[in-house]
Amino acid sequence: MPECACGCGEPTKKGKYLQGHEQQLRKQLEEKVGGLPLLASLVKVTQMYAQDRMSLEGLGRLVRLIYQKD
Ligand SMILES: [Zn+2]
């Protein structure tokens, strides 16, 4: 049986997620980064790096800034 894609380790009968777990995962990711706008920024900078539009050093600096919420 496939495992739920949220990382909880529970088996799913059908589909990628147990009921409600997709939304839980979305919420957890948002909270880990510090909100939806910061999550969008994180995706944007990693995408720029992947497309060779940013150096590794630049990526590192921006990722640290994004997580610097405390
Ligand atoms: Zn799950």
Describe this structure as you would to a colleague.
The protein folds into two domains: 1-33, no CATH class; 34-70, no CATH class. Helix content is 57%, strand content 0%. The protein is built from three helices and no strands. It has helices at 21-33, 36-50, 56-67. Helix 1 crosses helix 2 (36-50) and helix 2 packs antiparallel against helix 3 (56-67). The longest helix is centred in the middle third of the chain and has 15 residues, at 36-50. The relative contact order is 0.12. Bound molecules: zinc ion. Zinc ion binds at residues 4, 6, 8, 10, 17-18, 21.
List its traits:
70 residues, binds zinc ion
Hetero groups bound?
A: zinc ion
Number of domains: 2
Tally of individual helices? 3
Beta-strand content estimate = under 5%
Order of helices and strands: HHH
- pLDDT < 50 stretches: none
Average predicted confidence as pLDDT: 95
Rounded radius of gyration (Å): 15 Å
How do the strands and helices of this protein lay out in sequence?
Layout: H1 21-33, H2 36-50, H3 56-67
Helix pairs in contact: 1-2, 2-3
The chain binds zinc ion (ZN).
Task: State the gist of this model.
With 70 residues, the chain is mainly α. It has helices at residues 21-33, 36-50, 56-67. It is elongated.
